């Protein structure tokens, strides 16, 4: 049999192994998110995550190595693509408003991963093993917000005396704060209404004065 006929099954097997690995990792992260929401960060152990996902007690250690690495991966995965479509828009005021509205709307879905992220974020204020990773994620979020404000200033949508860093800090604080309130008292936070109301407030605040000075 020619050598090339032996190679196709090997490639298929490798793809299957990678798919199994990806599925296992996703199941472990989902199990970790459920445990964080149900019992808190301190109740999460690698063994419990493996059992909750339906695998052996040692599978989470094999995939992540440590609890900190697992929680870092959970935080990253739970916020990846949180607001669908934002990456398709060019930087500027429209993208910023789209992000604000979409973020608050997603908070209203009460997804386990999103709730787990907020609990991890709150825990990071006192848990040193989490703080560095969340500082980096918040810094990256603020950088994206600053980029939108700076682009809005450059194209005349936002007044030139606006401080992008101040806006970034305020927007991030507001979004996280709404999320925490939603966790504590869901009935008091109408995300459907807030999503458009808060987005509209930021659009008006950031575009104020451009018609007179532009």
UniProtKB/TrEMBL annotation:
Coiled coil: none
Stored InterPro entries: BetI_C (IPR039538), Homeodomain-like_sf (IPR009057), HTH-type_TetR-like_transc_reg (IPR050109), HTH_TetR (IPR001647), Tet_transcr_reg_TetR-rel_C_sf (IPR036271)
The species this protein was found in: Nocardiopsis sediminis
Alphabetically ordered keywords of this record: DNA-binding, Repressor, Transcription, Transcription regulation
Protein name: TetR/AcrR family transcriptional regulator
DNA-binding region: 45-64
SUPFAM superfamilies assigned to the protein according to its UniProt record, in alphabetical order: Homeodomain-like (SSF46689), Tetracyclin repressor-like, C-terminal domain (SSF48498)
Gene3D superfamilies for the chain: Tetracycline Repressor, domain 2 (1.10.357.10)
Region named Disordered: 1-21
Domain called HTH tetR-type: residue spans: 22-82
Transcription found in the keyword field: yes
The organism's place on the tree of life at top rank: Bacteria
